[in-house]
């Protein structure tokens, strides 16, 4: 893909850029693989808002993606490279000899007409092929990694991401994730070889509030712009700092740089924690 940068003919256009979609080969999706996506407005089954700033947005269909890649030893031909409104990565429509079609997360450099294969045996190490981690050479770049054998890929699925296979010893493989976390994963899990497509997605600049509205994200008011009865950061005269030792949420809990992960069952599989580059600043609200 490429990035199209607009001329600054208005304040909204200044520093605004979009995806040029030059790698898309088909506009209309495969109807048999579509599911309606219902809007929640950030509310749970009881009607209570559990995720703020969600609402509106363009209508979307869910593309059913094959994260399991469980059609083994049957070569699939890439029919088209398509846009998915639910992810930054491209998806590839794959057709198999028996006529079945499936969407997969497309790797970088895949083209229409290429053949991809999924197998539990040793196969060619080329982008888009899927196999057990134990069959992949150490040092290879992989994505769409399973956490549990047969469950389907859960890790490294976002645009441009890739993980590195560091070592295989005993029952487990050591994998360095894009977050810099080093983790042990069962070598019987499946993974796809290569890098997730559309690595330039991170360079797109939204530019104006309307584009965020199209994505279904409503404006977020700063805490320090509120009154003291609405937010812990509120109050004060003029451009004041938040006046607290650390940033807080509207409900008074710690925010920014606070560890929220609580999963003692899988802590033993983490060899090295990810490096947190975010710095806590009292001026941030």
The CATH superfamily of the largest domain turns out to be Nucleic acid-binding proteins
CATH topology of the largest domain: OB fold (Dihydrolipoamide Acetyltransferase, E2P)
**CATH architecture title of the largest domain:** Beta Barrel
Whole-number mean pLDDT = 92
Rg calc: 22 Å
List SSEs in N-to-C order: EEEEEEEEEEEEEEEEHE
Q: Can you describe this structure?
A:
The protein is mainly β and 285 residues long. The chain has two domains: 3-201, OB fold (Dihydrolipoamide Acetyltransferase, E2P); 221-285, Ribosomal protein L2, domain 3 (Irregular). The protein is 2% helix and 23% strand. The strands form five sheets. It has a seven-stranded antiparallel beta sheet, with no helix packed on it. A four-stranded antiparallel beta sheet has the order 7-6-5-8, with no helix packed on it. β13 and β14 (172-176) form a beta hairpin. The longest helix has 6 residues, at 209-214. The protein is globular, with a radius of gyration of 22 Å.
